[in-house]
Specification:
heterodimer, A: mainly beta, 4-stranded antiparallel sheet, about 50% strand, B: mainly beta, 7-stranded mixed sheet, 3-stranded antiparallel sheet, about 0% helix, globular
């Protein structure tokens, strides 16, 4: 059974760094694109980017390029989403998603709240 | 970047009625096109992929059609559990983009 299990909710202050995770199981992690989708409060879905763990090829939406970093650790079948300096506007639910065209499996979501 | 525009933004219908949701792309899209359903507090769920193929476990009252720049999701007879937000997505050209969503609400 394919499962994507995300790390828990985070509350951070503006300017802080953060790395959230998504552990995959039940399929070949290295051979499937996996990525992140943002959903701001009360808003729609935004595709952020994805990574191919086998060779770490990474694609970003222009809206998120330079704002976040997507990485993966094949040894523990885990993908990460990282910020170096959070802003209040980063407050959102973040879903990891197996992106082997289309998105067929989703994580449960990680709520990130950025507030002073 | 391919922009997807969904219409209508909100659709008010009753159980048993037929729902027709549309999605238009800013440029021609291959058949790499999907529809998702999202209920409050839940992750989205894949309904349709390849423009017209139902995902595993999706009832046959859901159907997808279209090609090029115009795509449609049809729910033939609405059940109470179908009232939710629906998103289209193209996954043929990176960045993979979503439409802004259609809120299918109970009339």
């Amino acid at each position: 059974e394919v499962q994507l299990v995300q790390s828990g909710a985070e509350v951070k202050k503006p300017g802080e760094s953060l790395k959230i995770s998504c552990k995959a199981s039940g399929y070949s992690f290295a051979g499937n694109w996996i990525g992140w989708v943002r959903q701001m409060p009360g808003k729609g879905l935004e595709w952020m980017g994805m990574i191919y763990p086998a060779d770490s090829d990474t694609r970003y939406s222009p809206s998120f390029q330079g704002q976040v970093t997507i990485s993966a650790d094949k040894s523990i079948s885990t993908v990460y989403l990282q910020w170096s300096s959070l802003k209040a506007s980063d407050t959102a639910m973040y879903y990891c998603a197996r992106s082997t065209a289309p998105i067929d499996y989703w994580g449960q979501g990680t709520l990130v709240t950025v507030s002073s | 970047e391919i922009v997807l525009t969904q219409s209508p933004a909100t659709l008010s219908l009753s159980p048993g009625e037929r729902a027709t949701l549309s999605c238009r792309a800013s440029q021609s899209v291959t058949n790499s096109f999907a529809w998702y359903q999202q209920k409050p507090g839940q992750a989205p769920r894949l309904l349709i992929y390849g423009a017209s193929n139902r995902a595993t476990g999706i009832p046959d009252r859901f159907s997808g059609s279209g090609s090029g720049t115009d795509f449609t999701l049809t729910i033939s007879r609405l059940e109470p559990e179908d009232f939710a937000v629906y998103y289209c997505q193209q996954y043929g050209s990176s960045p993979y983009t979503f439409g802004q969503g259609t809120n299918l609400e109970l009339k």
